[in-house]
Protein: Putative membrane protein YeiH
Amino acid sequence: MCDTAFVATPPGFDLPSLDVQASLRVLDLVGIFAFSLSGALVGVRKRFDLFGVVVLGCVTAVGGGSIRDALTGTVPPVYLRDETYLWVAILGAVVGFAFGPRLERFDRTLSVFDTLGLALFAVSGALGGLALGFGPLGVIFVGALSGVGGGVIRDVLARETPQILYRHDQLYATAAAAGALVVYLLHGRVPDLASQLVAAGIVIALRWLSRRGRVRLPVRRLPESELGP
Structure:
């Protein structure tokens, strides 16, 4: 997550513009709410109590942004300096706890908010990398980790295998990386808002296509004789 001042800006790089910073803040707040709600829904499904649901929602919400801040040298993480982020995370978790039992399709609802959070954090992570002058691989790396970090922490705490390790039929980290790449490729060629919307749209589209079996990653199938016990 980013605010109006980056810490430890490398020599030779200009500080990000106020327009970029404002965009990052908006993306962060919306993404935090979406990820917090997705984490809370997992907690409700796992029958966590209110405290557990709020903790899982908040960790899901700030996990990816914390990784991004660490990689871009923003220390301490912005959510510790601006409590707005934590309040939004708590709000998302409470909403998930209050209305989760009424949602009949947890998987579908979780996927919607998880995909929204993934797209927004991948884009904001890529913008943070661009602001510090990272190259294409650096921008992709920061964007992908920003997008998947919160979800991985959520799955680990909920005792589930992180989706990025096995769900080849539902693109997750790959979708985040693709969105970050689009941000890099369009930077300076189209208005910032347009590049952000296109990149977020790419992430959402890839997730949608993969969930319907139209796009997937290859998986190495071993003969049964080569599989372990």
Residues 1-18 have pLDDT under 50 and may be disordered. Residues 18-216 form one domain. The CA atoms of residues 122 and 187 lie 15 Å apart. The chain has one domain: 18-216.
